[in-house]
Amino acid sequence: MTISIKLARTVKDLLMMAQTEYFDAGHRTCQGCESAMVLRWVAKAAGPNTIVIGATGCMYVANTTYYTTAWALPWIHTQLSGTGSAVVGTAAALKALIEKGKLPNEKINVIGICGDLGCADAGLSEVSNALTHTKYNFLILMYDNESSANTDIQETTMTPYGALTTFSPSGKQVRIMKYRWKKNMAAMMAVGHPEVRYVATATAADPIDLYNKVKKALEIGGPTFIHTLDPCPKGWGYDPKYSHEIGRLAVETGIWPLFEIEDGKFRLTSTSARIASGEIKRKPVKEYLRRQTRFKHLTDEDIEYIQKKVDEMWEKWLIPGLIPLTRELPYPEVTKASTK
Amino acid sequence: MSVQAPSIYTIEIIYRGIHQRHLARNLSRGIVYAARMAGNVALSYQRYGDDPERDGVPAKYFVVVAKGANEEILDAEAARVEPDYVDVSIVLDDTILKGVESWAWQGIQPVHLKLRAGGLLIVVSKRSPDELLKFIPTRDSPYTLVVVYGERSIGDFWTFPDDGTVERVLGAIAKVMPNVLTIDDVKRYLESLDKPSERVNRALEAYQSLVKLREVKPGEGLPYKYEPPHLPGWKDMMIGGAIPGLKPNQRNPYFTGGTAKHYRPVVNFDKCIKCSLCWEYCPDSVFDVTPDGYFNPVLAYCKGCGVCAEVCPVPDTIIMVDEMEFEDGYGKFIDEYRAWKENREAYRKWFESLLPKAQIISVRKR
Amino acid sequence: MSVSALETKRLEAVLKGDEEVEVVGTGTDAVAYALMLADVDVTSAYPIRPYGGVMQTVAKLIADGYMKAEYIVAAHEHDQFEIVKHASAVGARTFVGSSGVGWLLAIEAIVAISTDRYPVVALIGNRALDDPGAYGVEHNDALMVRDVGWLLVWVDTAQEALDTTLIAYRVAEDPRVMLPVGISMDGAFLTHSEHVFRIPPKSKVQKFLPPYDLGNRKLHPSNVISVAPQVNEDWVTEIRKQMDEAMKNARKVIEETYRDFAKIFGRDYGNPFVEPYMVEDADVVMVGMGTVSKPIKEAVRRLRAKGERVGFLRIRWFRPFPTEDIIRYLSGVKVVAVVDRDYSFGSPFDGGAVFTEIRSALYESERRPLMMNFIGGLGGREITYNDAINMFNMALDAARKGKVEQRVIWYGVRE
């Protein structure tokens, strides 16, 4: 399907199209919080006809301290794992009330915002169930700062291999406690829910890409899913002024491929597309990892291992960043038999 | 001891969240250890509302020391959110003198809000007491301002720069509050750690030559009156935890976040190419778009992360300058754009005077 | 457990006409019909016995066009309860329910529903808690939420289930209350047995039940609010106090609602909170909740026929607790014997939850009765009228002796 909405091409477009703030200043986030950046741009892309649901997590605790709020959109808290349920309940209620004439008939965006712990771990079944409810319109946005950042930086399934968290410290006996590889959430949501018409990855370091993706998701409708990688100065251990740069490096090193899957069509976007086309060269992962003290204990061998895994994702996967299988089709035996 | 002192001493440590997390904890534990090794009783706790800490947001630790008493004397001091008053406030970063805003509706609190009349305000700084006094709100009662000479100590979640700040502050406590910890008490504690002689020397150095005192009279300092918030009663609150939201483009009137910064962006509008990147990349929506297309930081809401200076493509157009270079704060900040519009030449000179003091931003752009 | 062809005609009659109709159905069917009449907007289902029956009937009512609601099959009970919480926040009338451990899986959402003050109505098909898995009745599932701001009511017939569902919406949605209601129904004995009951016409229900209106708390772009931001210690006491007030208000609202119900539908339940049965002049009064009323009433009649002065008091509303009625009906009685289809391990007298609460209520009485507690009917074990007669006899014995020898009796436990 072709999208009839206007997308941003330059930062100047963003300025023209999205000057109004709906998630505004005066929240208790850290200096240089990229998740706050994500919310700011999601709110801008969504506009005033929107209901926002925020699951427990940094962006709940930090953004809304009782009797004040940073939201100029109707906003409600949901439990840590409740995002999928909350968006379904909200969208279903709107549908029922509009159809029964109890609410005026208008398009209202429903956006559920959850962190990696709330979405990829605690709320995975709710989110998955939500994505099968194709008669409702909503966007689930997972802001992924790769830890349970509100509760003191604990390990989640989205914490990258080797990273320090307070649940995965490095010690004299065990150097790497986080031995599990990060889950491929956007891919899981896309491949597992083929009726979902829009799934994307994004980062606030590329606000044009993020803004356009949120616009598209809300326009296409049905259940949609966006996964953003949000550098976290607190948990990742870097000077907050580098927030934007760390996000860019995640993409430029190929660790975080930006893509979208629209009506079943996979497309790398922005910098990731330029890497895939050969226009720019992937930077070594070391440039990203060595900037963060959460990786300070990693040896050169560890970094080589991570480099190898990232290389595989780009060079061997069936679809880079999406399908971690290697190309074995068509089956050689079947091919032989059919050519007889 | 000659002075008839109360038996319980309460010490407050005010620090920047995450950046000084380990520093504050090591210092508060250090005081407790040193006090106990001297045969006294002590305990320490963080103000729980400040946890989870946010990068830059002022937070507090409290230490309670009781001389020559048994543990029971601490019972009334245990299980507290925060003490009613403190005998001494230790401020680990002099920019915190410009205010502490930790929760909404509490407003911007002066650093000495909890300080008892006649108490001690100890500040780690490279400035003189007289210079610091320009940033500290007035009080109705006298107190003693103590400066421990030293660099601002900044770490992160995973790293503690073991730069001697803990030892210097302990040395300063021994100097100005020997009734709580003597220099021998401090030495005894530091000798129990690794690198004992290095640590003891730092404490001794502070004790002997890095501490400056200044008696502050009522009314001296920055005119600012802290208005404690009036919290509505249960009959006046909306039910179900609901509250009114903001209007579009309305910044939160009850919480600013502005006390999180130790650096602030200063914009050279003469060099600005209006590319808008600072506006785009500010996580705190700080930049107002001016009618002629410039971007004006609303400093009350700026947390001082420095992303705007990093993304600015024109060198030395947004610079990050130490908060102590500016005698504003407590909700009232310089309006840079207006100052520039009113007198470009004066603004240019001012900007140039700040340039040498600016934080070094990414080398690649220089 | 679903609508048969015979019933469709009757359903059409209540939707279009002004007369009640009589149908045969289970207790859960009765609730489903009430949901149809209440014009529920959003409901969420997840299979668990014995509550599941209501959702099967609701599904069929929707499929056949008798009811219009968003019917959402959830991933699990926590999902289910979160869904209705958020639907309610937008202004939709909602229904949800569960049983046993399913109800407990949803506990986080259950608490948020009451603290966020959404008037969700839920059916609890009472069931024993696993492990081991057992799907007979026990009241511990519903009692798990007795302290978190849910109104809790127990019914003992299909008719009462239907009527109470309508009453529950009106009470819950009253601006003075704005708290959720859990309707408890004994698994198997009421959820799964077929009884005759009458369905009132929708026209009368519309007179009784005004539209759900959240007022200035409705989450909508035209009403920009933030709901349940993070609080610190400055606020929580006040938020709890608001709920306390709402729960206290509920007593008055319940009384008003039953009065109006009787006026509009012609069915008068008398005292809304408790059902007294031959308690005047009684020496021994048995107390219980739910379908245990049936065999006990039979026992009362048989013992009364023999001249024994016995009676029964059925508690309907457990939250808010009917302290005044308990004092009124039980003060001065010689022996009060509480039958608990639940247990509260380690409670003050190692007894059941209802026993403990009644004992607490009677502390204020000037004429405190002797008290006994029968733990019985756990995990769906039946209590027959003969069992009830045995219990009465033990209580009568205590009344004669003027003292209770064994305060808590695990009735029928195998030695």
Task: Write up this protein.
The complex is a heterotrimer of chains A (340), B (366) and C (415). Chain A has helices at 11-17, 34-46, 58-61, 83-99, 116-122, 124-131, 185-192, 207-220, 233-237, 243-252, 270-276, 286-289, 300-315, 332-339; strands at 50-55, 75-78, 109-115, 138-144, 198-202, 223-229, 259-262, 265-268. With 340 residues, chain A is an alpha/beta fold. In chain A, a hairpin with a 2-residue loop joins strand 7 and strand 8. In chain A, helix 4 runs parallel beside helix 6 (124-131). The model of chain A has no long low-confidence stretch (mean pLDDT 94). Chain B has 366 residues and is α/β, with parallel strands linked by helices. Chain B has 2 domains: 7-216, Pyruvate-ferredoxin oxidoreductase, PFOR, domain III (Pyruvate-ferredoxin Oxidoreductase, domain 3), CATH 3.40.920; 261-364, Alpha-Beta Plaits, CATH 3.30.70.20. Chain B has a 7-stranded mixed β-sheet. With 415 residues, chain C is of the alpha/beta class. Chain C folds into 2 domains: 3-265, Rossmann fold (3-Layer(aba) Sandwich), CATH 3.40.50; 274-410, 3-Layer(aba) Sandwich (Rossmann fold). Chain C has helices spanning 5-16, 27-37, 52-63, 77-90, 100-105, 107-115, 140-143, 158-173, 202-208, 236-265, 293-305, 323-330, 353-362, 385-401, and strands at 21-26, 42-45, 70-73, 94-98, 121-126, 151-154, 181-186, 194-199, 225-227, 274-277, 284-288, 310-315, 317-319, 335-340, 370-375, 408-410. Chains A and B meet through helix 1, helix 2, helix 9 and helix 10 of A and helix 6 and helix 7 of B.
Task: Annotate the secondary structure layout.
The complex is a heterotrimer of chains A (340), B (366) and C (415).
Chain A lengths: L10 H7 L16 H13 L3 E6 L2 H4 L13 E4 L4 H17 L9 E7 H7 L1 H8 L6 E7 L40 H8 L5 E5 L4 H14 L2 E7 L3 H5 L5 H10 L6 E4 L2 E4 L1 H7 L9 H4 L10 H16 L16 H8 L1
Parallel strand pairs in A: 1-2, 1-3, 3-4, 4-6, 5-6
Antiparallel strand pairs in A: 5-7, 7-8
Helix pairs in contact in A: 2-8, 4-6
Chain B lengths: L7 E9 L4 H17 L3 E6 L11 E9 L19 E6 L23 E11 L3 H5 L9 E7 L15 H12 L6 H9 L4 H15 E6 L25 E3 L18 E5 L9 H5 L5 E3 L5 E3 L9 H5 L6 E5 L13 H7 L1 H11 L12
Parallel strand pairs in B: 1-4, 4-5, 5-6
Antiparallel strand pairs in B: 1-3, 2-3, 6-7, 9-12, 10-11
Chain C lengths: L4 H12 L4 E6 H11 L4 E4 L6 H12 L6 E4 L3 H14 L3 E5 L1 H6 L1 H9 L5 E6 L13 H4 L7 E4 L3 H16 L7 E6 L7 E6 L2 H7 L16 E3 L8 H30 L8 E4 L6 E5 L4 H13 L4 E6 L1 E3 L3 H8 L4 E6 L12 H10 L7 E6 L9 H17 L6 E3 L5
Parallel strand pairs in C: 2-3, 2-4, 4-5, 5-7, 6-7, 11-12, 11-14, 14-15, 15-16
Antiparallel strand pairs in C: 1-8, 6-13, 10-12
Helix pairs in contact in C: 2-3, 2-8, 4-6, 8-10, 9-10, 11-14
Pfam family, one (chain A): TPP_enzyme_C
Catalytic activity (chain A): a 2-oxocarboxylate + 2 oxidized [2Fe-2S]-[ferredoxin] + CoA = an acyl-CoA + 2 reduced [2Fe-2S]-[ferredoxin] + CO2 + H(+)
EC number (chain A): 1.2.7.11
